[in-house]
Design goal:
284 residues; five-stranded parallel beta sheet; 5 helices; alpha/beta; FNR_nucleotide-bd; oxidoreductase activity; SIP_FAD-bd; 33% strand
């Protein structure tokens, strides 16, 4: 039966994309939620996992490995918490904009309502300080996800690459790929202490790169056999991954639908918003 309710149409769209052969971004009905911090835990030396729950996370939408939410914080200048208001299936954002930071959805459990956000704490920014110091029982407002890039599992090879900020999305990618999937994952971290356990399919070779600095060169060294359809997903510091944009276009000659390259952050810029090679915005 075809769904007709506005809040369920996106589920039909997601199912249609997954049954096809072309990645497509699908929008979700977006909400702002008041969530409770249930616990925090270190994930390796570079990430802190903040687990959210309570009534506010019931019915959360989670469908794609790199979907993201905004965590909303009081203004650092005047202490005001400016929240968007619900406008049908969308949100109306106030001016000035709320103080926010954007993070990948690492995990959502519909049964328990638990939502995991893994925060990179390699710097001293607002989000990193919050993740380090927040205690169970505190509350935070969560906006999103606004949608997700749905990638059908029809590719012969998958190439995933990123730095510490991309590690939560890569970890989820590896968990959600079919166990028969094949390819490569390159993860650039500061040192061995930032490595974490990953549930990669046996056919996906995981390579940890440290110290930071050679991600683009390592990725461009991959020998992709001719005639294999390949999907490339890359995220990280905007300057470091820039060479890979030309590589996928000019050397691999991939169609626009077969890659997603996103600057999650830019050195020296707070709350960076990337204008990248796919219509899937993300910042850290």
């Amino acid at each position: 039966m075809t769904r007709t309710d506005g809040r369920a149409r996106h589920l039909d769209a997601i199912a249609e994309v997954r049954a096809g052969d072309t990645p497509t971004k699908v929008g979700y009905p977006i909400r702002v939620r008041r969530a409770e911090v249930l616990r925090t835990a270190a994930v390796g030396a570079g990430l802190v996992r903040v687990t959210l729950g309570g009534p506010g996370t019931a019915g959360f939408e989670a469908h794609a490995p790199d979907e993201h939410v905004k965590l909303l914080f009081p203004d650092p200048e005047d202490g005001a918490l400016r929240l968007p208001t619900q406008d049908g299936l969308m949100l109306r954002w106030p001016r000035p904009s709320p103080t926010s930071r954007e993070y990948t959805v690492r995990r959502y459990d519909p049964g328990s309502g638990e939502l995991d956000i893994d925060v990179a704490v390699h710097g001293g920014g607002l989000g990193a300080r919050w993740a380090r110091t927040v205690r169970p029982g505190a509350h935070v407002h969560v906006a999103g996800p606004p949608g997700g890039l749905i990638v059908p599992h029809v590719y012969d090879r998958y190439l995933l690459a990123g730095d510490l900020t991309a590690l939560p999305a890569i970890a989820r990618w590896l968990e959600e790929l079919p166990r028969a999937a094949a390819g490569w994952a390159f993860i650039e971290v500061a040192g061995p202490a930032q490595r974490i356990d990953l549930a990669a399919p046996p056919g996906v070779a995981v390579r940890w790169l440290h110290p930071v600095g050679d991600l683009a060169d390592a990725v461009r060294g991959v020998d992709i056999p001719a005639g294999l359809r390949t999907y490339v997903w890359v995220a990280g510091e905007a300057g470091a991954i820039r060479p890979l944009r030309a590589w996928v276009r000019d050397d691999l000659r991939l169609p626009r639908t077969d890659y997603d390259i996103t600057g999650y952050w830019k050195r020296g810029v707070a709350d960076f918003d990337d204008d990248h090679d796919h219509d899937h915005d993300h910042d850290h």
